[in-house]
Amino acid sequence: MTGSVYAAFGETVKHHPDEDFLCILPETAGRYAIESGTYSYRQAAQIVGELRGRYAAAGLRPGQRAGLLLENRPDMFFHWFALNGLGVSVVPINSEWRQAELEFLVGHSEIGVAVAPRGREQQLRQAAADCGRRLIVTPPDLSGLSPAPEAREAARISETQEVALASATREAAPARTTECALLYTSGTTGRPKGCVLTNEYFLCAGDWYINAGGLCTVRPGRDRLLTPLPMTHMNAMAFSTLAMVLTGGCIVPLDRFHPGTWWSTVRLSRATIVHYLGVMPAMLLSAPPESGDRQHTVRFGFGAGVSPRLHAGFEARFGFPLLEAWAMTETGAGAVIIANREPRKVGTACFGRAASDIDYRIVTDHGGDAPVGEPGELWVRARGAQPRRGFFREYLKDSPATEAAWEGGYFHTGDIVFVDPDGDLHFVDRKKNVIRRSGENISAVEVESVILQHPQVAGVGVTAVPDEIRGDEVMACVIARPGLGAAAHMELAVELVEFCKERLAYFKAPGYVVFCRELPLTPTAKIQRARLKELGRTMLGASDAIDLRHLKKRSTP
């Protein structure tokens, strides 16, 4: 079994040299100002090998870290594999991060080299200066790197040799336990944590995907996987990439999700697999039905967070299943769960049942095991003698947080779920997102999924705001669709409360509605919950909230 991502790529080059590895579509190329086109495994191997030789010549060695601010460009894949072949860990840098965030990352990760497109180098140099670190910043062509004196001879040799990754597996190579990447969590509830991920983490993700089976079956050398998710996210970097690399499949990375051109992109790419986040199905369903809605080659979608109320409608309209899965950056494939076999219980937030190699508990606030049907926090581990196999190694420089997350021998996920009598797991919400009103637990995600169905709503975030009598009250921060004037806001706010009361228990309806131009989102379109809560409190304090608590009354039987 191969010991690194680089070696796994090298094996595939030997067996599928002329299959497509990367496909860059014209729309994506235009946004990145690069050329569109397709790279075969052989062509990619040549680029990776050349980069590896130049990094080695510059003196990069095992144990170092290199930052990659390359988004979903082809360079992201090439530089990652090249550095991995030297035992150098990569730190994907979120292109949306600003100066203070970049300063934190540069200082915390201790990267010595960073690769960024021209125009972004100065931001990284300034971040390094602000935190007192020396950082070499280079464009993707590595023109900013100079060969180390002791490596110049090696550089001369590498440039004259024919580059072939097929020989990689015969060389001394990084081990499965070698750090492969430092991936920062999206920071929805606070400062991001750096998750140390080994080669084993990535190889386990790929192995899991290609062996999942059922509706999630991957066909070697035949599948084309389209993903709009960023390579700073474990879904794209670990699962998408390694599933295709291990099977000789083609990755079609987009710069991001564009709802207006999504289906033309799907058709042009000849995608057979698409990856999604929960916001995507809702946006695609909001477009008027077309005769070509089923004119594509997609066999399944892989993702999480589709609204239970929209799930069946999406599959009926577009003709392929959305396979809801559960995992975290920290768990990787060590405890991934997916609803990939029938009955999938569409419309119930079901994400399948745990495989035989996973142990889990659903734990109440009192520390006991929740009975069937009752929600609690999901705790997980790998079954057997290595309970952390496939998981992250640690939070960088934060041993207390690592050990706290594993207290009791299970990883504490922070997700509230319940198990039904059949053993299937159902998602409720993040533990920190649960609104506690008059003794009732309310899921922010559940309320959001209902409000998003209203035709005048373009986006919504639901959060808790303080209430002197009930503890918490529900606030909905709403983005109205274009064309709705401010004068109509009060009417729509009242309508939204009644809309929710028709579909949910009365106490789950918003007590306050605030209209916003935008919501605080992560680059993967997840709501930044901590910032949303701050926004809610600010709006409430500034009297910008429409108070509708008087409408929250029990319906007369």
Overview of the molecule:
The strands form 7 sheets. The protein has a 6-stranded mixed beta sheet, with helices on both faces. α3 runs antiparallel to α7 and α8 (199-211) packs across α9 (234-247). It contains 16 helices and 25 strands. It folds into 3 domains: 5-338, ANL, N-terminal domain (Rossmann fold), CATH 3.40.50; 357-423, Luciferase, domain 3, CATH 2.30.38.10; 433-551, GMP Synthetase, Chain A, domain 3 (2-Layer Sandwich), CATH 3.30.300.30.
Draw up the topology in text:
Elements: H1 5-15, E1 20-24, H2 26-32, E2 37-40, H3 41-57, E3 65-68, H4 74-84, E4 89-92, H5 99-109, E5 113-115, H6 121-130, E6 136-138, H7 152-160, E7 179-184, E8 194-198, H8 199-211, E9 224-227, H9 234-247, E10 250-253, H10 262-269, E11 273-277, H11 279-285, E12 300-304, H12 308-318, E13 322-326, E14 337-338, E15 358-363, E16 376-382, E17 394-395, H13 399-405, E18 411-419, E19 425-430, E20 434-437, E21 440-443, H14 444-451, E22 457-467, E23 471-480, H15 489-503, E24 512-515, H16 529-541, E25 546-547
Parallel strand pairs: 3-4, 3-5, 5-6, 9-10, 9-11, 11-12, 12-13, 23-24
Antiparallel strand pairs: 1-2, 7-8, 8-17, 13-14, 15-16, 16-18, 18-19, 20-21, 22-23, 24-25
Helix pairs in contact: 1-9, 3-4, 3-7, 5-6, 8-9, 11-12
